[in-house]
Amino acid sequence: MQSELETATASRSREQTAAESPPGSRIVCRQAISAEETIEHFAIRHEIFVAEQHIFRGSDRDAHDERDSVVRLLGYCDGVAAGSVRLYELDRPAGIWQGDRLAVLPAFRLRGVGAPLVGCAVAAAAVRGGRLMKAHVQPANVSFFQRLGWTSAGSVELYAGLIHQPMQTALPTPDEGLATLARFASGVTVRGR
Ligand SMILES: CC(C)(COP(=O)(O)OP(=O)(O)OC[C@H]1O[C@@H](n2cnc3c(N)ncnc32)[C@H](O)[C@@H]1OP(=O)(O)O)[C@@H](O)C(=O)NCCC(=O)NCCS
Fold first, then answer.
1. What are the tens digits of pLDDT across the range 161-178?
2. What is the largest CA-CA distance in the chain?
3. Which of 13, 36, 70, 184 is 20 to 30 A from 93 (CA-CA)?
4. How high is the pLDDT of residue 20?
């Protein structure tokens, strides 16, 4: 039978472990709907693709931002808008969607924002009737997408003036997509890394 001393020691040890463990971050992903959310979405894209990566001069917005099918998502880390992704339809009869402008602010990278943003983009296309999503992926991020189930789709190509790897993924069913969107809209806790 465990002595009182052993019980107290085990309890202290559990408390210490909890105190030493990083608390984890609350990650929420949802569509940018309001004017304020849309501004936040564009601001993150600007910070990464114009200011950090210098892929675009002045603005990264293009004609796809005006399309009826465009969907803009925001990823939040502990309540702060930390990441963005955009998707739009490429071919309705074939159910093909494009995902792009995936960006997480440097201070929030490796905290579990990027992967849910990709998952929500895939889910958002699925609930809109999509069957396949394509993306032009920077070489440094190919393994990030592979880990999420994406596969290469052809040879590297020039996109926005830089080498990219075309990749694609089959989309889930609309019901699975809805479940994913609901899960990330209410938020998940990602253990501290
Ligand atoms: C690529 C990017 C979106 C990843 O976002 P992130 O929030 O850091 O990713 P997450 O924290 O969700 O990472 C999920 C997992 O992928 C891993 N990962 C993250 N970036 C990776 C990369 N470039 N290559 C391989 N694995 C990567 C993480 O370590 C994590 O692994 P784990 O589940 O074992 O802990 C982010 O680095 C970014 O915005 N980069 C600059 C913009 C950019 O390059 N956009 C993409 C254009 S194709």
1. 899 999 999 999 999 999
2. 72
3. 184
4. 52
